[in-house]
Task: inverse folding
């Protein structure tokens, strides 16, 4: 998926989002343009909910033609899934060294709590990112797959698991689902930040207790 | 929330969803009308995605005035959260007796797998229900709170827990988040039905192992 660049020759705006895979930037200029679009999406998406974000507005504020915007991001779902993917990438780059003698499942808990606080600082944007990542079909939105993979890599690295078992993969998937759910519940008024912390740490302890490299009970 | 009926005197359509709590039916006729609307929403919502469902179309097919529809369901989010609440209520009424000698966490697993199969039979409707239940704010959409409570009651009853501890409440909440996440992942092409079953059962076993009435390890 990720490597298939589409050849767009005309200037027509693709109306049907799923009809064609989004273009991947290949030159430095294209990369800069894509980054500029993502920064604009962060700014506009922090101010208004997904349904009120206009692709025209994003194109104008990014100083790109509307056709260019649609070429990279065929829909708002693609755009905000990409914003989420970039955010999760940044979490991976900024992982602090764990405090000494911290249990691996608490290392993961600390990471997810810190990431949650960071995301929840901009609740409107977080809502759009989660909604996009949640509803994006992995077959058509390559960033949705990228988010899953980066999340999985962060957790497995923190646990010191190099070759995950089938069960490890399942545990990480369930943990990600809990994390999304907790974030969503916070965003829609179901839980306080204290509950967010508590729930994330409990999910880490309970789910990760049966990872393949967990210490055996004595 | 649930008991506060709004007095709507005019025929104007409330444009701002959150401005007024939805009306609760009090007479048998009102109850019938609400049920008729919900049945229409199931039918139309099984055919087209949430963003293409028109409130006008739902009103017409339910043979109610558009003002009446908005009085019960101020937005599509309210409407499909109510469809989900009715569905979860039905799951509660139809719980089969557990097979003899089944572990309580597997009883819950069986229930959730059966409920998932039922929901995933109509994927378009399931997507709209989940999206609505997920994004509904509990302060303004009373059915969102109702779904949480009914889900919690189903799980606690199946586990034989009458007075849940704080930890029990957290476990049930995390389990619900896993369940939503698994359904969502199935709907957006991330996992097969076999994975759905496997993940739900594993979430039940791992999360529910530390419930307050779990057998102590020997």
Result:
């Amino acid at each position: 998926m990720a490597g298939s660049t589409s050849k767009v020759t005309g200037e027509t705006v693709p109306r049907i989002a799923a009809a064609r895979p989004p273009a991947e930037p290949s030159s430095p200029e294209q990369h800069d343009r894509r980054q500029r679009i993502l920064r604009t999406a962060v700014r506009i998406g922090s101010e208004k909910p997904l349904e009120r974000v206009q692709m025209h507005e994003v194109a104008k504020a990014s100083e790109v033609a509307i056709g260019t915007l649609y070429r990279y991001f065929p829909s708002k779902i693609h755009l905000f899934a990409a914003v989420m993917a970039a955010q999760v990438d940044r979490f991976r780059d900024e992982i602090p060294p764990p405090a000494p003698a911290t249990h691996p499942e608490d290392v993961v808990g600390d990471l997810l709590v810190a990431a949650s606080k960071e995301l929840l600082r901009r609740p409107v944007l977080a809502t759009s990112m989660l909604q996009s990542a949640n509803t994006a079909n992995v077959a058509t939105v390559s960033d949705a797959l990228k988010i899953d993979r980066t999340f999985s890599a962060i957790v497995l690295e923190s646990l010191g698991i190099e070759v995950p078992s089938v069960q490890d993969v399942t545990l990480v998937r369930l943990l990600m689902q809990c994390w999304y759910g907790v974030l969503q519940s916070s965003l829609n008024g179901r839980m306080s930040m204290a509950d967010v912390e508590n729930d994330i740490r409990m999910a880490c302890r309970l789910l990760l207790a049966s990872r393949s490299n967990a210490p055996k009970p004595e």
